[in-house]
Amino acid sequence: MVYVRVRTDFTPTDGSYSTRKRVSSTIEDLPPNYRTLLDVVEEAGPGSHLTAHDIWVRARARQPRIGFATVHRGLGRLHELGAVMKIDVPGQASAVYEPAASPHAHFRCTACGAIADLDFTLEPDTVRALARKHDVAIDFETVTFTGRCAGCA
After folding, report:
1. Are residues 71 and 29 in the same domain?
2. 101 close to 141: Cβ distance less than 8 angstroms
3. Which of 82, 101, 120 marks a domain boundary?
4. Which of 5, 29, 50, 88 has the most CB atoms lying inside 10 A of its own CB?
5. Distance separating the N- and C-terminal Cα atoms of the chain
């Protein structure tokens, strides 16, 4: 699978957007260590929510000399390319990662700390209205609900 980052450029002279594509990188162009990280995340599957430490431990089973800093850099790069999702969940000590998937929300149990995917997204009209109301540019949204899961309720 090849991931291509597409960027549209704003052309201020006429106010239009260019459809020119800039390819910043593909998975095949990345170092083998980064490919190992992607394999670890993809094998864990959707909804796995692995921390960088979890990924590092699993990657070391394949490449014993891989460093923790390499894992952080690699996950950052894979996230930039859209190959993995980085989720900053309120109440968690660190971000968690999962394979790239369609937009969805997350639920964090305040009792046991479990994180689960929820089939929920904000309507694009709602996001645009919020941006206009608060005079901000919203690039993406992250929705996390907190409470107690069924096992802890």
Report:
1. yes
2. no
3. 101
4. 50
5. 41
